[in-house]
């Protein structure tokens, strides 16, 4: 793949982060092109993937990834993976001369999707020739996971069979990618990673050495490392571990971008009143600490808020999903993240991580909010002015950071990305003498049209735009959570869906990454909820492994000051978010 690639190393810290990350990597895998004769894709896959070689000499193409999780979280996935076959004769050799007792236990059963993947790897199932011919694979020199058949022909993944993220992972990982923290259990009541202090104290000794070794491995093979994208669970002990990891990255790789996404599910599977209190405190400490150690920090969740009684999750008009199902909610976040991360992954005219961060993190405002129209409503054969004019009264995107936009607020800056308009017209192409229907129809470029539309809601806010023609491609096991009004390309049908219509295989998406006063209520509510909670009386075990009470109170004060950075003292002269009267 030609062109200079600015490499990105991804870290996924925690189980829900790995849910989101697995969907995101599946999307990247589905977009890979192995035809040497085709035009280079707009998104530079080499920025997040790496070439390697197995001991047998086969060339591999695997994510530049470090994924951390707890004991018992992998199920059928081997920690070292299967691509490099770390077993073999050397592992099977026994040097002990005495008697040997062998204890066997049945491995977890694979779901139908993983069984099909295994058959594909062994050559027992052939994919459709039009997807990727054997000669093209040989010409590329890369050995990816073979592509699954078309979604209409593939056996759908039963949602009830998904219990961990590896149940729907469709690509191979490098042996150095997965790190298991054995001192804590994924399931059960004992030895749980529940508190911020536990996470902080975990990253030391052998685990710290292992993380540093793997970081050095991936960093040293990069030619133009631009930075790190970190997905971290925000409401359990991984918030503390993520704070230490981002601090390590900041200290060891100064000058590189660190974009951190603090993820949280809508519903925790093992929720209790006591654990919900822990979730709140972890989120407060994780937000202030990871924001301090990152170039940019963005909460990412479909929950209405991180407080005790949050509003309901956002409703996406063209989706039908179960918010409580991690498999569903993480898929939506991954789709949005696929567009949100486009600016620093483009082959041409990309914006490096530091540029994205510097344009938004002004005057100490390092926390940003994400919004997304998933999918963005477009009609087949229509134009971008047509689609945006249908949303003239309200922005089409929904909050992805528990920060709803309200009328009358201020935006300090934003990055907006439209991805997936392939086959659609960006401009209206009016005949001479024809009066444009709206001002948008009279503009002559997609960038000008989108800029004019967004600026009508944020008249004075700095705005950066990215338009990418190629859509996010959906292959099994991405859940089919889309409205029947969408066609296979994710565009809205003119009428009822025909019988036997194929499932959605790609979608257009519009996202926005914003710094604005909508973050003030979010941060202030989080700080107030944590500060009014008497942690020493009602949850004394929360501080048993740190932080000290003085450090805890100092962190909450820093969170209060951080929230105040987003307070609008201008009187609210724009149309888009709300002014909060609380200080």
From TrEMBL:
<dbReference type="InterPro" id="IPR019605">
    <property type="entry name" value="Misato_II_tubulin-like"/>
</dbReference>
<keyword id="KW-0963">Cytoplasm</keyword>
<dbReference type="Pfam" id="PF14881">
    <property type="entry name" value="Tubulin_3"/>
</dbReference>
<keyword id="KW-0496">Mitochondrion</keyword>
<comment type="function">
    <text>Involved in the regulation of mitochondrial distribution and morphology. Required for mitochondrial fusion and mitochondrial network formation.</text>
</comment>
<feature type="domain" description="Misato Segment II tubulin-like">
    <location>
        <begin position="6"/>
        <end position="119"/>
    </location>
</feature>
<dbReference type="InterPro" id="IPR049942">
    <property type="entry name" value="DML1/Misato"/>
</dbReference>
<protein>
    <recommendedName>
        <fullName>Protein misato homolog 1</fullName>
    </recommendedName>
</protein>
<dbReference type="Pfam" id="PF10644">
    <property type="entry name" value="Misat_Tub_SegII"/>
</dbReference>
<dbReference type="InterPro" id="IPR029209">
    <property type="entry name" value="DML1/Misato_tubulin"/>
</dbReference>
<dbReference type="GO" id="GO:0005739">
    <property type="term" value="C:mitochondrion"/>
</dbReference>
<feature type="domain" description="DML1/Misato tubulin">
    <location>
        <begin position="157"/>
        <end position="346"/>
    </location>
</feature>
<comment type="similarity">
    <text>Belongs to the misato family.</text>
</comment>
<dbReference type="GO" id="GO:0007005">
    <property type="term" value="P:mitochondrion organization"/>
</dbReference>
<dbReference type="InterPro" id="IPR036525">
    <property type="entry name" value="Tubulin/FtsZ_GTPase_sf"/>
</dbReference>
């Amino acid at each position: 793949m030609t062109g200079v690639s600015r490499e990105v190393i991804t870290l996924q810290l925690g189980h829900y982060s790995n849910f989101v990350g697995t969907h995101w990597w599946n999307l990247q895998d589905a977009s890979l092109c192995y035809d040497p004769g085709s035009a280079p894709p707009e998104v530079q896959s080499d920025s997040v993937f790496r070439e390697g070689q197995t001991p047998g000499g086969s060339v591999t193409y695997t994510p530049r990834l470090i994924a951390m999780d707890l004991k018992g979280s992998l199920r059928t996935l081997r920690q070292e993976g299967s691509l490099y076959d770390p077993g073999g004769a050397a592992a099977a050799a026994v040097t002990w001369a005495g008697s040997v007792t062998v204890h066997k236990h049945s491995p977890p059963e694979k779901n139908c999707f993983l069984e099909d993947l295994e058959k594909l790897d062994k050559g027992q199932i052939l994919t459709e020739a039009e997807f990727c011919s054997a000669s093209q694979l040989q010409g590329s020199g890369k050995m990816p996971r073979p592509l699954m058949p078309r979604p209409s022909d593939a056996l759908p993944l039963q949602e009830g069979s998904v219990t961990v993220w590896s149940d729907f992972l469709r690509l191979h990982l490098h042996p150095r990618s997965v790190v298991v923290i054995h001192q804590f259990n994924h399931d059960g009541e004992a030895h749980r990673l529940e508190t911020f202090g536990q996470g902080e104290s975990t990253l030391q000794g052998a685990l710290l050495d292992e993380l540093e070794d793997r970081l050095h491995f991936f960093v040293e093979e990069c030619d133009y490392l631009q930075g790190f994208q970190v997905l971290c669970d925000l409401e359990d002990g991984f918030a503390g571990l993520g704070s230490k990891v981002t601090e390590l990255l900041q200290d060891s790789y100064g000058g590189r971008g660190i974009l951190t996404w603090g993820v949280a599910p809508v519903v925790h599977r093992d929720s209790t009143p006591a654990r919900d209190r822990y979730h709140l405190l972890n989120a407060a400490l994780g937000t202030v600490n990871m924001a301090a150690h990152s170039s940019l920090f963005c909460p990412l969740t479909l929950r209405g808020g991180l407080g005790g009684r949050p509003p309901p999750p956002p409703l996406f008009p063209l989706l039908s999903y179960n918010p409580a199902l991690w498999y569903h909610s993480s898929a939506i976040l991954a789709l949005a993240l696929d567009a949100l991360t486009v600016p620093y992954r483009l082959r041409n005219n990309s914006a490096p991580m530091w540029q994205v961060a510097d344009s938004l993190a002004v005057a100490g405002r390092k926390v940003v909010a994400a919004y997304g129209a998933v999918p963005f409503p477009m009609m087949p054969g229509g134009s971008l002015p047509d689609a945006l004019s249908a949303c003239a009264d309200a922005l089409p995107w929904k909050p992805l950071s528990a920060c709803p936009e309200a009328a009358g607020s201020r935006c300090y800056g934003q990055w907006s990305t439209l991805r997936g308009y392939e086959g659609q017209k960006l401009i209206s192409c009016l005949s001479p003498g024809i009066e444009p229907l709206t001002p948008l129809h009279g503009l002559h470029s997609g960038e000008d049209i989108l800029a004019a539309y967004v600026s009508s809601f944020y008249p004075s806010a700095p705005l950066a735009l990215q338009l990418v023609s190629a859509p996010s491609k959906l292959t099994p096991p991405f859940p089919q959570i889309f409205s029947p009004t969408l066609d296979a390309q994710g565009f809205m049908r003119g009428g009822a869906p025909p019988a036997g219509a194929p499932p959605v295989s790609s979608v257009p998406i519009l996202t926005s990454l914003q710094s604005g006063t909508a973050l003030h209520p979010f941060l202030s509510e989080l700080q107030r909820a944590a500060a009014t909670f008497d942690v020493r009386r009602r949850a004394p075990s929360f501080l048993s492994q740190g932080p000290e009470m003085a450090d805890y109170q100092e962190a909450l004060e820093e969170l209060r000051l951080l929230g105040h950075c987003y307070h609008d003292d201008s009187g609210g002269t724009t149309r888009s978010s709300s002014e909060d009267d609380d200080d």
